[in-house]
Write a structure and sequence with these properties.
The chain has about 280 residues and is of the alpha+beta class. The chain has two domains: about 5-125, N-terminal domain of MutM-like DNA repair proteins (Alpha-Beta Barrel); about 150-275, Helicase, Ruva Protein, domain 3 (Orthogonal Bundle). It has helices spanning about 5-20, 40-45, 85-90, 150-155, 160-165, 175-185, 200-220; strands at about 25-30, 50-55, 60-65, 70-75, 80-85, 95-105, 110-115, 120-125, 260-265, 270-275. Strands 1-6-7-5 form a four-stranded antiparallel beta sheet. Helix 1 (about 5-20) packs across helix 7 (about 200-220), helix 4 (about 150-155) packs across helix 7 (about 200-220) and helix 6 (about 175-185) packs across helix 7. The structure holds a DNA duplex (16 and 16 nucleotides).
Length: about 280
DNA sequence: ACGCCCACCTGGAGGC
DNA sequence: TGCCTCCAGGTGGGCG
């Protein structure tokens, strides 16, 4: 499911229900996510208060008051859902509600993940950056320090297609299949272009496009294709603004272009693009 | 070190 | 209806 905008949307939805609240009970209905849930997970988090929720790349970082960070990744199909006090008790669990947090005010937060590509890790806060999942991650695209020159430097010498380079979280984080396609369309770059040729003005354009598409999607609550929902249950709406993603055969949205959106497969993932507007 | 392929898992859509 | 194939917002391990 989730790329940066969806994860950020989930983060914002969780903050009012979790930050400043104590986890009174944690229930593991299924422990075999992509990696098994932490050993003695419940006893380690029950009684802890969540002081903040941060995001790094596509990971949520729940900062606990004992110096530990609960790292959550939503994989492809993960969602977090909120249930208020009276309905939480009555509302039956759904098929893929794997982890349940009961908070001190009666609200319940459920982690639901049909495909179980998600994960949860418990790591000392000071050790998060050194954890193998975080080592080598590229810069945050919404960080003010990230600019065309920074992207160009990371693409130098890369022989892969620019599309594949954008999906590589070592290049930059947070961009996945949807936003890579959309950013390449907005910047007029062919997904097949060799990454090392994206330098100078092209890199500046691409960074602007990445920022624009991510920020607009966050404004819309992310993209709801199959699984993504905001914690409060609202859908995302950015999918209604896709120019090319999943639009094979539709006319290119550029006025007067007239070409049809094409699909190709790169690194095992679908790429959608306009062969005329993107060079 | 880099770049590609595949596996991990479930469910929805479409074809016959 | 049922069965089969293909496809899906990610990641990381193994291979050449």
């Amino acid at each position: 499911m989730p790329e940066l905008p969806e994860v950020e949307t989930v983060r914002r939805g969780l903050v009012p229900r979790m930050v400043g609240h104590r986890i009174v009970r944690l229930t593991q209905r299924r422990k075999d996510l992509r990696v098994p849930l932490p050993a003695r997970f419940a006893e380690k988090v029950e009684g802890r208060t969540i002081e903040a929720i941060d995001r790094r790349a596509k990971y949520l970082l729940l900062r606990l008051d004992d110096g530990q960070t609960l790292i959550v990744h939503l994989g492809m199909s993960g969602r977090m859902t909120l249930h208020d006090a009276p309905s939480a008790a009555e509302h039956p669990f759904e098929r893929h509600d794997h982890v349940v947090f009961d908070m001190d005010d009666g609200w319940q937060v459920r982690f639901n993940d049909a495909r179980r590509f998600g994960l949860m890790l418990l790591v000392p806060t000071e050790a998060v950056a050194e954890h193998k999942a975080f080592k080598g991650l590229g810069p945050e695209p919404l960080d003010a320090l990230f600019d065309g020159a920074a992207l160009a430097a990371r693409l130098r010498g890369k022989r892969t297609p620019i599309k594949a380079a954008l999906l590589d979280q070592k290049t930059l984080v947070g961009v996945g299949n949807i936003y890579a396609c959309e950013a390449l369309f907005l910047s007029g770059l062919s997904p097949r272009r060799s990454a090392h040729t994206v330098q100078g003005e092209r890199a500046v354009r691409l960074v602007e496009a990445i920022r624009q598409v991510l920020l607009r999607s966050i404004d819309d609550g992310g993209s709801t294709l199959r699984d993504h929902v905001q914690p409060g249950g609202e859908l995302g709406y950015f999918q209604t603004r896709f120019n090319v993603y999943d639009r094979t055969g539709a006319p290119c949205p550029t006025p007067g272009c007239g070409q049809l959106v094409k699909r190709l497969v790169q690194a095992g993932r679908s790429t959608f693009y306009c062969a005329r507007c993107q060079r």
